[in-house]
Amino acid sequence: MQTRLILFFLIFYIKSVSAQQPDLLSLVEDEKQPKEFVKNSYKSTRVIMSHSLENLAGGVLDFRILHRFGMINEGAYQFFGLDQATIRLGLDYAVTDRLTVGIGRSSYKKEVDGFAKYKLLWQATGPKSSPVSVIYVGGTTVNGLKFEDEEVENYFTSRLGYYHQLIIGRKFSESLTLQIAPTFLHLNIVPETLNRHDIYGAQLGGRIKLTKRLALTADYVFVANGKDGDVEYKHPLSIGFDIETGGHVFQLHFTNATGMNERAFITETQGDWGKGDIQFGFNISRVFTIKDKRKK
Amino acid sequence: MIIKTISFAVVALLVTSVGLAQDKYFTKEGKITFYSKTPVEEFDAVNSAGLSIIDTKTGAIEMSVLIKAFEFKKDLMQQHFNENYMESDKFPKAVFKGTISNIAEINFTKPGTYKAGIDGKLTMHGVTRDITVDAIFIVSIAGVIAKSEFIALLDDYNIKVPGVVKNQISQQIKVEIDNTFKPYVK
Questions:
Q1: Residues 50..109 of A with a Cβ closer than 8 Å to B: which?
Q2: What homologous superfamily is domain A39-295 in, according to CATH?
Q3: Most buried one in A286, B67, B70, B111, CB count within 10 A?
Q4: Residue-wise pLDDT tens digits, B74-107
Q5: What CATH topology corresponds to B24-183?
Q6: Beta-carbon separation of B51 and A9 below 8 A
Protein backbone atom coordinates (compact mmCIF):
# COMPACT_ATOMS: atom_id res chain seq x y z
CA MET A 1 0.00 0.00 0.00
CA GLN A 2 2.72 2.36 1.05
CA THR A 3 4.77 1.34 -1.95
CA ARG A 4 1.90 2.12 -4.26
CA LEU A 5 1.42 5.47 -2.69
CA ILE A 6 5.05 6.41 -3.12
CA LEU A 7 5.02 5.11 -6.69
CA PHE A 8 1.96 7.20 -7.38
CA PHE A 9 3.65 10.33 -6.09
CA LEU A 10 6.77 9.47 -8.04
CA ILE A 11 4.84 9.23 -11.31
CA PHE A 12 2.88 12.34 -10.52
CA TYR A 13 6.12 14.17 -9.74
CA ILE A 14 7.85 13.10 -12.94
CA LYS A 15 4.79 14.13 -14.92
CA SER A 16 4.69 17.57 -13.35
CA VAL A 17 8.40 18.10 -14.02
CA SER A 18 8.09 17.14 -17.67
CA ALA A 19 4.89 19.17 -18.07
CA GLN A 20 6.62 22.46 -17.34
CA GLN A 21 9.31 21.99 -19.96
CA PRO A 22 7.62 23.30 -23.15
CA ASP A 23 7.09 26.96 -22.26
CA LEU A 24 9.98 28.50 -20.38
CA LEU A 25 8.52 32.01 -20.34
CA SER A 26 5.47 30.91 -18.39
CA LEU A 27 7.83 30.36 -15.44
CA VAL A 28 8.52 34.08 -15.17
CA GLU A 29 5.28 35.55 -16.45
CA ASP A 30 3.00 37.15 -13.91
CA GLU A 31 -0.38 35.53 -13.76
CA LYS A 32 -2.03 38.79 -12.87
CA GLN A 33 -2.79 41.06 -15.77
CA PRO A 34 -1.28 44.47 -15.05
CA LYS A 35 -3.56 47.49 -14.83
CA GLU A 36 -3.36 49.44 -18.04
CA PHE A 37 -4.96 52.80 -18.79
CA VAL A 38 -6.97 53.04 -21.98
CA LYS A 39 -5.53 55.61 -24.35
CA ASN A 40 -6.33 57.12 -27.72
CA SER A 41 -10.10 57.29 -27.23
CA TYR A 42 -9.99 60.19 -29.65
CA LYS A 43 -7.32 61.70 -31.88
CA SER A 44 -7.75 65.03 -30.15
CA THR A 45 -8.77 66.62 -26.87
CA ARG A 46 -11.97 67.94 -28.48
CA VAL A 47 -14.68 65.83 -30.06
CA ILE A 48 -15.25 68.75 -32.45
CA MET A 49 -16.34 71.73 -30.38
CA SER A 50 -16.71 70.09 -26.95
CA HIS A 51 -14.02 68.60 -24.76
CA SER A 52 -13.41 64.93 -25.37
CA LEU A 53 -12.41 62.12 -23.00
CA GLU A 54 -8.84 62.54 -24.04
CA ASN A 55 -6.27 64.54 -22.08
CA LEU A 56 -2.87 65.55 -23.39
CA ALA A 57 0.07 63.66 -21.94
CA GLY A 58 1.94 65.52 -19.21
CA GLY A 59 4.41 68.07 -20.56
CA VAL A 60 2.71 68.46 -23.94
CA LEU A 61 1.61 71.81 -25.38
CA ASP A 62 -1.18 71.86 -27.93
CA PHE A 63 -1.52 74.82 -30.26
CA ARG A 64 -5.05 74.88 -31.64
CA ILE A 65 -6.33 76.94 -34.54
CA LEU A 66 -10.10 76.87 -34.97
CA HIS A 67 -11.90 78.22 -38.02
CA ARG A 68 -15.58 78.58 -38.81
CA PHE A 69 -16.72 79.98 -42.12
CA GLY A 70 -20.06 81.61 -42.89
CA MET A 71 -23.33 79.83 -43.60
CA ILE A 72 -23.31 77.60 -46.65
CA ASN A 73 -26.85 78.70 -47.59
CA GLU A 74 -25.64 82.26 -48.21
CA GLY A 75 -24.97 81.02 -51.68
CA ALA A 76 -22.46 81.73 -54.39
CA TYR A 77 -22.26 85.48 -53.68
CA GLN A 78 -20.61 84.74 -50.31
CA PHE A 79 -18.80 81.79 -51.86
CA PHE A 80 -20.94 79.49 -49.71
CA GLY A 81 -19.74 81.11 -46.51
CA LEU A 82 -16.04 80.95 -47.26
CA ASP A 83 -15.85 84.76 -47.60
CA GLN A 84 -16.28 85.16 -43.87
CA ALA A 85 -14.41 83.46 -41.13
CA THR A 86 -14.21 83.56 -37.38
CA ILE A 87 -11.33 82.05 -35.52
CA ARG A 88 -10.20 80.95 -32.10
CA LEU A 89 -6.53 80.63 -31.30
CA GLY A 90 -5.77 78.49 -28.30
CA LEU A 91 -2.96 77.04 -26.24
CA ASP A 92 -3.50 74.02 -24.01
CA TYR A 93 -0.81 72.69 -21.71
CA ALA A 94 -0.83 69.43 -19.79
CA VAL A 95 0.67 69.90 -16.35
CA THR A 96 0.29 66.17 -15.71
CA ASP A 97 -1.29 63.25 -17.53
CA ARG A 98 -4.51 64.08 -15.71
CA LEU A 99 -4.53 67.88 -15.57
CA THR A 100 -4.67 70.20 -18.56
CA VAL A 101 -5.13 73.96 -18.51
CA GLY A 102 -5.86 76.06 -21.54
CA ILE A 103 -6.58 79.53 -22.80
CA GLY A 104 -8.00 80.80 -26.04
CA ARG A 105 -9.23 83.88 -27.79
CA SER A 106 -12.06 84.02 -30.27
CA SER A 107 -12.64 86.72 -32.84
CA TYR A 108 -16.38 86.37 -32.19
CA LYS A 109 -17.19 88.91 -29.41
CA LYS A 110 -13.42 89.24 -28.86
CA GLU A 111 -13.89 86.69 -26.16
CA VAL A 112 -11.13 85.17 -24.07
CA ASP A 113 -11.72 81.85 -22.38
CA GLY A 114 -9.75 79.71 -19.98
CA PHE A 115 -10.37 76.25 -18.61
CA ALA A 116 -9.02 73.47 -16.43
CA LYS A 117 -9.65 69.86 -17.27
CA TYR A 118 -9.03 67.09 -14.78
CA LYS A 119 -9.29 63.35 -15.27
CA LEU A 120 -11.01 62.06 -12.12
CA LEU A 121 -11.34 58.47 -13.29
CA TRP A 122 -9.40 56.83 -16.08
CA GLN A 123 -10.80 53.88 -17.98
CA ALA A 124 -8.42 50.94 -17.66
CA THR A 125 -8.08 47.21 -18.10
CA GLY A 126 -6.87 44.74 -15.50
CA PRO A 127 -7.83 44.30 -11.87
CA LYS A 128 -9.74 47.01 -10.01
CA SER A 129 -10.03 49.22 -13.05
CA SER A 130 -12.76 51.61 -14.04
CA PRO A 131 -14.88 50.79 -17.08
CA VAL A 132 -15.34 54.49 -17.87
CA SER A 133 -13.39 57.71 -17.74
CA VAL A 134 -14.80 60.66 -15.83
CA ILE A 135 -13.41 64.11 -16.51
CA TYR A 136 -14.28 67.45 -15.01
CA VAL A 137 -13.98 70.60 -17.10
CA GLY A 138 -14.50 74.04 -15.63
CA GLY A 139 -14.03 77.26 -17.51
CA THR A 140 -14.58 80.98 -17.61
CA THR A 141 -15.28 83.25 -20.55
CA VAL A 142 -14.62 86.98 -20.73
CA ASN A 143 -16.40 89.10 -23.30
CA GLY A 144 -13.93 91.53 -24.83
CA LEU A 145 -16.28 93.87 -26.72
CA LYS A 146 -16.49 97.52 -25.65
CA PHE A 147 -19.37 98.23 -23.30
CA GLU A 148 -22.45 99.37 -25.18
CA ASP A 149 -22.88 102.41 -23.03
CA GLU A 150 -19.62 103.78 -21.72
CA GLU A 151 -21.35 106.64 -19.89
CA VAL A 152 -22.81 104.43 -17.17
CA GLU A 153 -20.81 102.55 -14.62
CA ASN A 154 -19.83 99.17 -16.04
CA TYR A 155 -18.51 96.22 -14.10
CA PHE A 156 -15.90 93.72 -15.26
CA THR A 157 -17.91 90.91 -13.68
CA SER A 158 -20.72 91.51 -16.15
CA ARG A 159 -18.42 90.28 -18.90
CA LEU A 160 -18.05 86.87 -17.32
CA GLY A 161 -19.61 83.50 -17.94
CA TYR A 162 -18.82 80.17 -16.31
CA TYR A 163 -19.29 76.56 -17.28
CA HIS A 164 -18.89 73.19 -15.62
CA GLN A 165 -18.96 69.83 -17.32
CA LEU A 166 -18.63 66.27 -16.17
CA ILE A 167 -17.66 64.08 -19.07
CA ILE A 168 -18.44 60.40 -18.69
CA GLY A 169 -17.38 58.17 -21.50
CA ARG A 170 -15.91 54.94 -22.66
CA LYS A 171 -13.81 53.64 -25.47
CA PHE A 172 -15.88 50.57 -26.28
CA SER A 173 -13.52 49.25 -28.90
CA GLU A 174 -10.72 50.38 -31.14
CA SER A 175 -13.33 51.84 -33.45
CA LEU A 176 -16.06 53.14 -31.12
CA THR A 177 -15.94 55.77 -28.39
CA LEU A 178 -18.98 57.41 -26.82
CA GLN A 179 -19.44 60.09 -24.18
CA ILE A 180 -22.10 62.07 -22.35
CA ALA A 181 -21.42 65.28 -20.45
CA PRO A 182 -23.94 66.96 -18.17
CA THR A 183 -23.27 70.66 -18.46
CA PHE A 184 -24.10 73.71 -16.37
CA LEU A 185 -23.48 77.22 -17.58
CA HIS A 186 -23.93 80.54 -15.81
CA LEU A 187 -23.95 84.01 -17.35
CA ASN A 188 -23.36 86.96 -15.07
CA ILE A 189 -25.30 89.26 -17.33
CA VAL A 190 -27.92 88.56 -19.99
CA PRO A 191 -29.28 90.91 -22.66
CA GLU A 192 -32.91 90.92 -21.48
CA THR A 193 -34.34 90.63 -17.99
CA LEU A 194 -36.33 87.61 -19.09
CA ASN A 195 -33.25 85.74 -20.27
CA ARG A 196 -31.92 83.01 -18.08
CA HIS A 197 -28.68 83.23 -16.19
CA ASP A 198 -28.41 79.49 -15.63
CA ILE A 199 -28.50 77.06 -18.50
CA TYR A 200 -28.48 73.29 -18.26
CA GLY A 201 -27.64 70.83 -20.93
CA ALA A 202 -25.97 67.62 -21.86
CA GLN A 203 -23.38 67.01 -24.47
CA LEU A 204 -23.38 63.80 -26.46
CA GLY A 205 -20.43 62.84 -28.59
CA GLY A 206 -18.56 60.01 -30.14
CA ARG A 207 -16.36 58.77 -32.85
CA ILE A 208 -16.17 55.87 -35.22
CA LYS A 209 -12.65 55.16 -36.37
CA LEU A 210 -12.66 54.35 -40.04
CA THR A 211 -8.97 53.72 -40.65
CA LYS A 212 -5.85 54.13 -38.55
CA ARG A 213 -5.68 57.82 -39.37
CA LEU A 214 -9.27 58.77 -40.16
CA ALA A 215 -12.30 58.91 -37.89
CA LEU A 216 -15.91 60.06 -38.17
CA THR A 217 -16.98 62.25 -35.26
CA ALA A 218 -20.23 63.76 -34.00
CA ASP A 219 -20.76 66.31 -31.26
CA TYR A 220 -24.20 67.46 -30.04
CA VAL A 221 -25.33 69.58 -27.12
CA PHE A 222 -28.88 69.25 -25.89
CA VAL A 223 -29.77 72.56 -24.22
CA ALA A 224 -32.49 71.64 -21.72
CA ASN A 225 -33.94 75.09 -21.00
CA GLY A 226 -33.45 76.29 -24.51
CA LYS A 227 -36.47 78.58 -24.87
CA ASP A 228 -35.72 81.88 -23.25
CA GLY A 229 -38.04 84.85 -23.76
CA ASP A 230 -38.05 85.64 -27.47
CA VAL A 231 -34.77 83.84 -28.07
CA GLU A 232 -34.75 80.20 -28.89
CA TYR A 233 -31.45 78.44 -28.60
CA LYS A 234 -30.75 75.83 -31.16
CA HIS A 235 -28.96 72.69 -30.12
CA PRO A 236 -25.47 72.82 -31.57
CA LEU A 237 -24.62 69.83 -33.73
CA SER A 238 -21.36 69.18 -35.50
CA ILE A 239 -20.40 66.29 -37.70
CA GLY A 240 -16.92 65.85 -39.04
CA PHE A 241 -13.80 63.89 -39.76
CA ASP A 242 -10.60 63.67 -37.76
CA ILE A 243 -7.59 63.30 -40.00
CA GLU A 244 -4.21 62.62 -38.49
CA THR A 245 -1.05 63.41 -40.41
CA GLY A 246 2.01 62.77 -38.28
CA GLY A 247 2.30 65.87 -36.08
CA HIS A 248 -1.09 67.45 -36.88
CA VAL A 249 -4.69 66.52 -36.35
CA PHE A 250 -7.19 68.16 -38.70
CA GLN A 251 -10.82 68.17 -37.67
CA LEU A 252 -12.90 69.05 -40.72
CA HIS A 253 -16.57 69.44 -39.98
CA PHE A 254 -19.97 70.93 -40.64
CA THR A 255 -21.78 72.68 -37.81
CA ASN A 256 -24.65 75.02 -37.03
CA ALA A 257 -22.66 76.69 -34.23
CA THR A 258 -20.55 79.76 -34.82
CA GLY A 259 -19.15 80.01 -31.30
CA MET A 260 -15.96 78.25 -30.42
CA ASN A 261 -16.08 78.27 -26.65
CA GLU A 262 -18.70 76.64 -24.43
CA ARG A 263 -20.55 79.86 -23.63
CA ALA A 264 -20.78 80.85 -27.25
CA PHE A 265 -21.89 77.57 -28.76
CA ILE A 266 -24.26 76.59 -25.96
CA THR A 267 -26.07 79.93 -25.59
CA GLU A 268 -25.73 81.53 -28.97
CA THR A 269 -26.30 78.89 -31.59
CA GLN A 270 -28.93 80.23 -33.96
CA GLY A 271 -28.32 78.11 -37.02
CA ASP A 272 -30.88 75.53 -38.01
CA TRP A 273 -29.59 72.40 -39.72
CA GLY A 274 -33.03 71.90 -41.33
CA LYS A 275 -32.84 75.27 -43.05
CA GLY A 276 -29.30 74.77 -44.22
CA ASP A 277 -27.74 77.19 -41.72
CA ILE A 278 -24.65 75.08 -41.74
CA GLN A 279 -21.10 76.23 -41.86
CA PHE A 280 -17.92 74.54 -42.78
CA GLY A 281 -15.15 74.63 -40.20
CA PHE A 282 -11.87 73.10 -39.28
CA ASN A 283 -9.71 72.71 -36.21
CA ILE A 284 -5.98 72.22 -36.48
CA SER A 285 -4.10 70.79 -33.54
CA ARG A 286 -0.33 70.79 -33.39
CA VAL A 287 1.35 69.34 -30.33
CA PHE A 288 4.80 70.12 -29.00
CA THR A 289 6.62 68.11 -26.37
CA ILE A 290 7.86 70.57 -23.80
CA LYS A 291 8.99 68.09 -21.19
CA ASP A 292 10.62 64.78 -22.07
CA LYS A 293 8.23 62.25 -20.58
CA ARG A 294 11.06 59.81 -19.78
CA LYS A 295 12.69 62.31 -17.43
CA LYS A 296 9.60 62.98 -15.37
CA MET B 1 13.54 -2.70 1.62
CA ILE B 2 11.71 -1.77 -1.57
CA ILE B 3 10.13 1.14 0.23
CA LYS B 4 13.53 2.31 1.39
CA THR B 5 14.92 2.16 -2.13
CA ILE B 6 12.02 4.07 -3.55
CA SER B 7 12.13 6.68 -0.79
CA PHE B 8 15.78 7.15 -1.57
CA ALA B 9 14.93 7.59 -5.22
CA VAL B 10 12.35 10.21 -4.32
CA VAL B 11 14.80 12.14 -2.17
CA ALA B 12 17.42 11.91 -4.90
CA LEU B 13 14.97 13.24 -7.48
CA LEU B 14 13.97 16.12 -5.25
CA VAL B 15 17.60 17.04 -4.71
CA THR B 16 18.38 16.95 -8.44
CA SER B 17 15.28 18.99 -9.18
CA VAL B 18 16.65 21.75 -6.97
CA GLY B 19 19.79 21.47 -9.06
CA LEU B 20 17.67 21.69 -12.20
CA ALA B 21 16.09 24.93 -11.00
CA GLN B 22 19.50 26.52 -10.68
CA ASP B 23 20.18 25.69 -14.29
CA LYS B 24 17.81 28.44 -15.25
CA TYR B 25 18.49 32.15 -15.22
CA PHE B 26 15.86 34.83 -15.61
CA THR B 27 15.10 38.55 -15.55
CA LYS B 28 11.95 40.64 -15.37
CA GLU B 29 13.80 43.87 -16.05
CA GLY B 30 15.27 43.13 -19.43
CA LYS B 31 16.17 46.29 -21.28
CA ILE B 32 15.39 46.70 -24.95
CA THR B 33 16.17 49.88 -26.82
CA PHE B 34 15.55 50.54 -30.47
CA TYR B 35 16.81 53.29 -32.68
CA SER B 36 15.52 54.79 -35.88
CA LYS B 37 17.80 57.15 -37.74
CA THR B 38 17.14 59.03 -40.95
CA PRO B 39 18.69 62.28 -42.19
CA VAL B 40 15.49 64.07 -41.10
CA GLU B 41 14.68 62.52 -37.74
CA GLU B 42 16.26 60.38 -35.07
CA PHE B 43 14.42 58.76 -32.23
CA ASP B 44 14.62 55.87 -29.84
CA ALA B 45 12.41 54.02 -27.42
CA VAL B 46 13.23 52.08 -24.26
CA ASN B 47 11.52 49.19 -22.56
CA SER B 48 12.90 48.13 -19.18
CA ALA B 49 10.39 45.45 -18.34
CA GLY B 50 11.33 42.61 -20.66
CA LEU B 51 10.88 39.07 -19.42
CA SER B 52 13.59 36.60 -20.30
CA ILE B 53 14.71 33.14 -19.24
CA ILE B 54 17.61 30.87 -20.15
CA ASP B 55 17.77 27.16 -19.64
CA THR B 56 21.50 26.43 -19.50
CA LYS B 57 20.87 22.69 -19.79
CA THR B 58 19.25 22.88 -23.19
CA GLY B 59 20.50 26.28 -24.32
CA ALA B 60 16.95 27.50 -24.74
CA ILE B 61 16.53 31.28 -24.41
CA GLU B 62 13.23 33.13 -24.52
CA MET B 63 12.23 36.74 -24.19
CA SER B 64 8.93 38.58 -24.21
CA VAL B 65 8.13 42.31 -24.05
CA LEU B 66 4.94 44.32 -23.87
CA ILE B 67 4.79 46.71 -26.83
CA LYS B 68 2.97 49.31 -24.74
CA ALA B 69 5.86 49.43 -22.27
CA PHE B 70 8.14 51.11 -24.80
CA GLU B 71 8.75 54.70 -23.79
CA PHE B 72 9.46 57.50 -26.22
CA LYS B 73 10.62 61.03 -25.63
CA LYS B 74 7.48 62.34 -27.28
CA ASP B 75 4.11 61.01 -26.24
CA LEU B 76 2.74 61.54 -29.73
CA MET B 77 5.34 59.15 -31.12
CA GLN B 78 4.44 56.58 -28.50
CA GLN B 79 0.79 57.02 -29.39
CA HIS B 80 1.44 56.55 -33.11
CA PHE B 81 3.81 53.64 -32.43
CA ASN B 82 1.07 51.77 -30.55
CA GLU B 83 -1.93 52.82 -32.57
CA ASN B 84 -0.68 53.07 -36.14
CA TYR B 85 2.41 50.95 -36.46
CA MET B 86 2.53 48.11 -33.93
CA GLU B 87 -1.26 47.92 -33.34
CA SER B 88 -0.52 46.94 -29.77
CA ASP B 89 -4.13 46.28 -28.82
CA LYS B 90 -4.18 43.51 -31.41
CA PHE B 91 -0.57 42.38 -30.96
CA PRO B 92 0.36 43.24 -27.36
CA LYS B 93 3.69 41.37 -27.20
CA ALA B 94 6.87 40.72 -29.07
CA VAL B 95 8.25 37.26 -28.30
CA PHE B 96 11.56 35.63 -29.08
CA LYS B 97 12.15 31.90 -28.67
CA GLY B 98 15.50 30.50 -29.56
CA THR B 99 18.53 28.43 -28.73
CA ILE B 100 22.09 29.36 -27.89
CA SER B 101 23.91 27.37 -30.58
CA ASN B 102 27.22 27.09 -28.69
CA ILE B 103 25.77 26.55 -25.21
CA ALA B 104 28.47 24.01 -24.38
CA GLU B 105 31.15 26.71 -24.61
CA ILE B 106 29.50 28.92 -22.00
CA ASN B 107 30.16 28.17 -18.37
CA PHE B 108 27.55 29.95 -16.32
CA THR B 109 29.41 29.24 -13.09
CA LYS B 110 32.79 30.54 -14.20
CA PRO B 111 33.19 34.31 -14.43
CA GLY B 112 34.23 35.49 -17.86
CA THR B 113 33.05 36.85 -21.17
CA TYR B 114 31.64 34.44 -23.69
CA LYS B 115 30.62 35.01 -27.29
CA ALA B 116 27.47 33.29 -28.36
CA GLY B 117 25.28 32.76 -31.36
CA ILE B 118 21.53 32.58 -30.96
CA ASP B 119 19.07 31.17 -33.49
CA GLY B 120 15.38 31.50 -33.06
CA LYS B 121 12.04 32.93 -33.99
CA LEU B 122 10.98 36.49 -33.36
CA THR B 123 7.26 37.19 -33.39
CA MET B 124 5.91 40.71 -33.48
CA HIS B 125 3.01 42.51 -35.13
CA GLY B 126 1.60 39.06 -35.88
CA VAL B 127 4.55 37.99 -38.02
CA THR B 128 7.09 35.30 -37.08
CA ARG B 129 10.57 35.40 -38.58
CA ASP B 130 13.67 33.27 -38.15
CA ILE B 131 16.55 35.36 -36.91
CA THR B 132 20.15 34.73 -36.00
CA VAL B 133 21.92 37.14 -33.69
CA ASP B 134 25.30 37.42 -32.01
CA ALA B 135 25.38 37.91 -28.29
CA ILE B 136 27.85 38.32 -25.46
CA PHE B 137 27.38 36.68 -22.08
CA ILE B 138 29.28 38.22 -19.20
CA VAL B 139 29.26 35.88 -16.23
CA SER B 140 30.12 37.32 -12.83
CA ILE B 141 29.28 36.64 -9.22
CA ALA B 142 26.47 39.20 -9.38
CA GLY B 143 24.72 37.48 -12.27
CA VAL B 144 24.82 36.92 -15.98
CA ILE B 145 24.67 39.88 -18.33
CA ALA B 146 23.60 39.19 -21.89
CA LYS B 147 23.95 41.77 -24.63
CA SER B 148 22.94 41.66 -28.22
CA GLU B 149 22.36 43.96 -31.13
CA PHE B 150 20.61 43.34 -34.41
CA ILE B 151 18.72 45.04 -37.22
CA ALA B 152 15.02 44.46 -37.80
CA LEU B 153 13.38 45.50 -41.07
CA LEU B 154 9.92 47.01 -40.80
CA ASP B 155 8.79 45.29 -44.01
CA ASP B 156 9.67 41.87 -42.55
CA TYR B 157 7.07 42.41 -39.85
CA ASN B 158 4.45 43.98 -42.06
CA ILE B 159 4.83 47.39 -40.40
CA LYS B 160 3.79 49.96 -42.95
CA VAL B 161 5.01 53.53 -42.99
CA PRO B 162 2.89 55.97 -45.02
CA GLY B 163 4.54 58.10 -47.68
CA VAL B 164 4.36 61.41 -45.81
CA VAL B 165 6.56 60.18 -42.96
CA LYS B 166 8.79 57.81 -44.96
CA ASN B 167 11.75 60.14 -44.56
CA GLN B 168 11.27 60.30 -40.78
CA ILE B 169 11.13 56.62 -39.93
CA SER B 170 13.95 54.30 -40.89
CA GLN B 171 13.21 51.00 -42.58
CA GLN B 172 16.11 49.48 -40.65
CA ILE B 173 15.56 49.55 -36.91
CA LYS B 174 18.55 48.88 -34.69
CA VAL B 175 17.58 46.85 -31.64
CA GLU B 176 19.77 46.60 -28.56
CA ILE B 177 19.23 44.14 -25.76
CA ASP B 178 20.82 44.37 -22.35
CA ASN B 179 19.62 41.82 -19.81
CA THR B 180 20.97 41.04 -16.36
CA PHE B 181 19.97 37.51 -15.44
CA LYS B 182 19.69 36.09 -11.96
CA PRO B 183 19.50 32.41 -10.98
CA TYR B 184 15.95 31.15 -11.21
CA VAL B 185 14.67 29.68 -7.98
CA LYS B 186 11.17 28.36 -7.91
A1: 56-57, 59-60
A2: monomeric porin ompg (2.40.160.40)
A3: B70
A4: 999 999 999 999 999 999 999 999 999 999 999 9
A5: Lipocalin (2.40.128)
A6: no
